[in-house]
Amino acid sequence: MPLKKILYKIKQLKILNETMIKTLYSFSKKNIYTMMGLTIVVTFLLYDELKNQIIWWGFSVFFVLGVRLYIVHLYKTYQDKYSLRQWYLLYMVLAFLTAFSYSSLSFLFIYQVDVYYQLLIITILLGLSSGAVTAFATDYRLAVVYLAIILFPLMGSIAITNTETSYMLLIAVILYFMAQVGMIIRTYEDEVEFSALQSEQEVLEQLFKEAPLGIFMFDEQLCITECNEQFLTMFEQEKEDIVGLDLTTLPDSKPLESFKKALLEGSQSYRGPYLSIKGISFWVEANIFSYDNKFNNPKSRNRIFHILKNH
User: Fold this and answer.
1) How does pLDDT run across 247-284, given as a tens digit for each residue?
2) CB pairs under 8 A, 24+ apart, for 172-180?
3) 174 pLDDT band (50/70/90 cuts)?
4) Strands ordered across the beta sheet of 215-218
5) Which CATH code, of 3.30.450.20, 3.40.1370.10, 3.30.10.20, 2.60.40.2380, is assigned to 203-310?
6) Helix (H) or strand (E) holding 1
7) Is the pLDDT of residue 144 over 50?
């Protein structure tokens, strides 16, 4: 990847927006209640082995989750009280504190229980880490760090046991971490791609709506896929009669050669007389150019017929 592209991506990571913050907080309440339930279950399952230690651990986790729940309430009630950056930092610190509270199972208690409960703790931490993919879908920075806080202490605890089985388990956890990071990044990139496509579509729709010129789009099969109101007014047509129309079936085939060349050679222009479907004579000056979506898929390309003037 070129250095400029890497630097651009790093710069983009610094950008906070209202949509991101709202999404993070909107998912928080449900996640917090789920983690409260999980904390009760973990405390109950490990009580016979750890007694009061796990009770104190449960209370500490509940305290952190309670503070998170209160902050979510504050955000919904007094959203304008703090800046986006301050809300983001509050969310980040408490999320990381929650991750650290759970990761403490791996370095405080895992050596005090037998193999069955050790596997239970590992399963809980792996399951909790997988939730980072969806919980932080809008910000993979949080997701990756959250994942690392949970799994790195677990990896260290496994490595310290210094047995052949533990090394195999350590490799498995490392591969799991790498797979989760890859999934988080792909999920984020897909989300960004989808948002970009939505924005692109909105811009195109606005262009169609506001443009004072007649515009229509056609695909590889020379079928019209979209047109604006100005085009319909200009040629006195209804949209349902135009969208889906095969350009090769037009009574006046003079512009057809330009349409075909646009498919093979790129941008074209047409200037000359044109007789419409309704028999109205026009003098048309137009440009034809490609419109490619963000996926750069040749099959999804459209050509835009942009009428500059008609007489």
Assistant:
1) 888 888 888 888 888 888 878 888 888 888 888 888 88
2) 173/122, 173/126, 176/126, 176/151, 177/129, 177/147, 177/148, 177/151, 180/129, 180/130, 180/132, 180/133, 180/147
3) very high
4) 224-227, 215-218, 302-310, 281-291, 268-275
5) 3.30.450.20
6) none
7) yes
